[in-house]
């Protein structure tokens, strides 16, 4: 086993443990903190797989932004002191969906359904690395979606301000 | 490393660029307009929409062949142009019917119009998307604006509830849509429709289970905005709770956009899966028509009734999608203009009846309208006839085309079911007519519609009749649309 494989398995196992902690903790704030750790473990596995940009995004957007929002919500609804017990009312449905997902993943990888895009590592090395490769397609081939995304975010921002800020009275 | 960034052909996206400038400009102008004169913002928006409409129409002659730009992610063809005109027309009429309504409801925010323009922009991008990512981003731009517009009257609990329901369902379904897109990418290695189609053909992936699953997810993702069964449950609540002009808008424009995207993806992307999606759409079409019409029978609220009727209309339009022939696309295109006329008209009437303390959306509010406002009653009958698909109205011509396409494709049972459904529909549309003509009026306060609303009603009323009696001009435009669109397939 090479070093990178070793690292991959260490972080993969850690990610699974952290994810289990997220769903088993009684306090919402503890779950949120384990979620950050789980995201960081995911990011570490991405680095092992040469996807350093994805790892950075994982840390910035998910561990930073999304969990930040979650913690805000916990603070605002004052759930930090409450101990919540999972009521497991929906565990059958959840188990069923998880099973479907496992079958699907197995199906996809064993059944050879996925279109493999050839020598990805070679292409990335040619572009000068993962980040450069993403940047290259983002500002050439996917320029239009990139611009549309900016308009989308502007519209969302205006919508959020309209709904949250103005007071309308009858 | 030397990178050359190719300059995309910007001339094809001029309407979209104008729309962005207009929407952002409107936000700036809004800052300088005092609260009691916000209708000025509406006028500017309307003028802008007309300009964009003219600019878009100017492309028609040049677009006998489809043209792509931005490395093939954006396509402009007559199909896209036709639908962009549908959206711009609907937006224009919605602005007209909003002017007075917003004043009655005391919702004096200029952002209302800007969001409407962003929504229209999203739909314009959707119909021009040749790449699933672009289509998805278009849908999101449209949907996010619509959620906010649906919940604009924050003081109204029904309105807030409607918007929240719409939002939660919308984001859930949008996740499913995105999942479908990733599955297509996994199976074919591309998100660009032309390439997806090429890979499917080349490698014989027509029966690939991943693609079949993706097809289900795409149909579900677009099915929400289309309001087709089983994704129609939000429609009655949202239609009832949202501000009426927005209800009118939602019932026409996003539905048209989602249909256009569905047709483009199914015809140009996964057309080799036709045997599979025909079975799927056959079932959905039958269920949607029947549920829509039968449930509409039981409604007392006109907005809810029109919501279920719009579900039923989605079913009729699915006939055209299912047919997968030139007449079918022609029918879909024609029907959406006709549908825009008649549905905007019917909702316009509901706004007309809006006055202090009375919403005007109960069937009883229509009682005796023929005696108090004979002209208004006549116009409403025209819209109802058109919705029911009775000549000489535009609705009849549209329905005729759709049925003809389905018969040509051999869907006899489905057309028989659709015809049966149309008879059921007659019954509930004419409950409104009965209330107007057969019942005596209750004492009404003076109705005070704005000039914008009157103008909008006259425009859609005249169009409904004109294209019912003389459909040729619109029909030939729809035919050109269908012709260039289906060229791909042969």
Number of strands of chain B: 2
Instruction: Please count the helical segments of chain A.
Output: 7
The total of beta strands of chain A comes to 0
- Largest sheet composition of chain A: none
Distance between the amino and carboxyl termini of chain A: 71 Å
Overall outline of chain A? globular
Offer a concise description of the structure:
Chain A has 170 residues and is mostly helical. Chain A is built from 7 helices and no strands.
Describe the structure.
The complex is a heterodimer of chains A (170) and B (490). With 170 residues, chain A is mainly α. Chain A contains 7 helices and no strands. The mean pLDDT of chain A is 84. Chain A is globular, with a radius of gyration of 21 Å. Chain A has a domain of 79 residues: Four Helix Bundle (Hemerythrin (Met), subunit A), CATH 1.20.120.1200. By secondary structure, chain B is an all-alpha fold. Chain B has one domain. Helix content of chain B is 74%, strand content 1%. Chain B has 19 helices and 2 strands. Chain B has a two-stranded antiparallel sheet. In chain B, a hairpin with a 4-residue loop joins strand 1 and strand 2. In chain B, helix 8 packs antiparallel against helix 10 and helix 11 packs parallel to helix 17. Chain B starts with 13 loop residues before the first helix and ends with a helix. The chains are: A mainly alpha (170), B mainly alpha (490). At the A-B interface, helix 6 and helix 7 of A face helix 1, helix 4, helix 5 and helix 6 of B.
């Amino acid at each position: 086993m090479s070093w990178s494989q070793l690292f991959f398995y260490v972080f993969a196992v850690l990610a699974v443990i952290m994810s289990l902690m997220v769903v088993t903790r009684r306090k919402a704030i503890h779950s949120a903190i384990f979620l950050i750790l789980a995201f960081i473990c995911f990011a570490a596995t991405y680095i092992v797989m040469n996807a350093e940009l994805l790892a950075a995004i994982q840390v910035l957007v998910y561990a930073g932004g999304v969990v930040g929002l979650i913690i805000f919500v916990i603070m605002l609804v004052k759930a930090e002191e409450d101990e919540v017990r999972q009521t497991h009312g929906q565990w059958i449905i959840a188990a069923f969906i998880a099973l479907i997902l496992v079958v699907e993943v197995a199906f996809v990888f064993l059944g050879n359904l996925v279109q493999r895009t050839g020598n990805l590592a070679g292409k990335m090395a040619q572009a000068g690395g993962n980040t450069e490769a993403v940047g290259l397609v983002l500002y050439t081939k996917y320029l239009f979606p990139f611009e549309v995304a900016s308009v989308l975010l502007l519209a969302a921002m205006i919508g959020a301000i309209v709904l949250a800020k103005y007071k309308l009275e009858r | 490393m030397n990178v050359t960034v190719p300059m995309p052909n910007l001339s094809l996206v001029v309407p979209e660029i104008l729309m962005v400038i207009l929407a952002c400009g409107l936000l700036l102008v809004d800052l300088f307009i005092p609260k009691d004169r916000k209708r000025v913002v509406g006028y500017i928006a309307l003028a802008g929409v007309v300009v964009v409409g003219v600019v878009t129409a100017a492309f028609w002659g040049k677009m006998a062949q489809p043209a792509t730009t931005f490395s093939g992610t954006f396509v402009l063809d007559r199909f896209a142009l036709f639908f962009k005109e549908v959206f711009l027309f609907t937006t224009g009429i919605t602005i007209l019917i909003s002017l007075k309504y917003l004043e009655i409801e005391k919702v004096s925010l200029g952002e209302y119009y800007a969001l409407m323009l962003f929504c229209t922009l999203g739909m314009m991008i959707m119909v021009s998307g040749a790449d699933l990512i672009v289509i998805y981003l278009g849908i999101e731009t449209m949907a996010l604006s619509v959620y906010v517009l649906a919940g604009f009257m924050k003081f109204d609990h029904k309105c807030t509830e409607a918007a929240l329901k719409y939002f939660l369902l919308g984001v859930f379904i949008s996740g499913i849509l995105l999942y479908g897109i990733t599955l297509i990418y996994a199976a074919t290695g591309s998100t660009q429709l032309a390439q997806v189609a090429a890979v499917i053909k080349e490698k014989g992936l027509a029966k690939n289970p991943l693609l079949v699953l993706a097809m289900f997810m795409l149909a579900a993702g677009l099915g929400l905005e289309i309001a087709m069964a089983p994704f129609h449950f939000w429609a009655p609540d949202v239609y009832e709770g949202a501000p009426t002009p927005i209800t009118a808008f939602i019932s026409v424009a996003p539905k048209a956009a989602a249909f256009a995207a569905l047709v483009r993806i199914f015809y140009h992307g996964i057309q080799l899966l036709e045997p599979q999606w025909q079975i799927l759409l056959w079932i959905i079409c039958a269920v949607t028509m029947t549920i829509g019409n039968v449930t509409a029978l039981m409604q007392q609220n006109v907005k809810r009734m029109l919501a279920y009727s719009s579900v039923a209309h989605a079913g009729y339009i699915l006939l055209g999608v299912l047919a997968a022939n030139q007449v079918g696309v022609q029918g879909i295109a024609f029907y959406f203009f006709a549908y825009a006329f008649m549905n905007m008209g019917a909702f316009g009437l509901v706004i007309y009846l809006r006055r202090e303390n009375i919403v005007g959306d109960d069937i009883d509010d229509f009682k005796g309208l023929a005696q108090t406002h004979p002209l208004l009653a006549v116009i409403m009958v025209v819209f109802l006839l058109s919705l029911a698909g009775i000549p000489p109205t535009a609705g009849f011509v549209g329905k005729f085309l759709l049925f003809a396409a389905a018969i040509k494709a051999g869907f006899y049972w489905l057309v028989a079911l659709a015809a049966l459904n149309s008879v059921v529909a007659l019954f509930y549309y004419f409950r409104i007519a009965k209330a107007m003509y057969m019942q005596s009026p209750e004492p009404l306060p003076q109705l005070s519609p704005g000039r914008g609303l009157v103008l909008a009603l006259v425009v859609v009323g005249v169009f409904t009749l004109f294209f019912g009696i003389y459909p040729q001009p619109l029909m030939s435009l729809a035919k050109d649309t269908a012709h260039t669109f289906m060229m791909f397939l042969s």
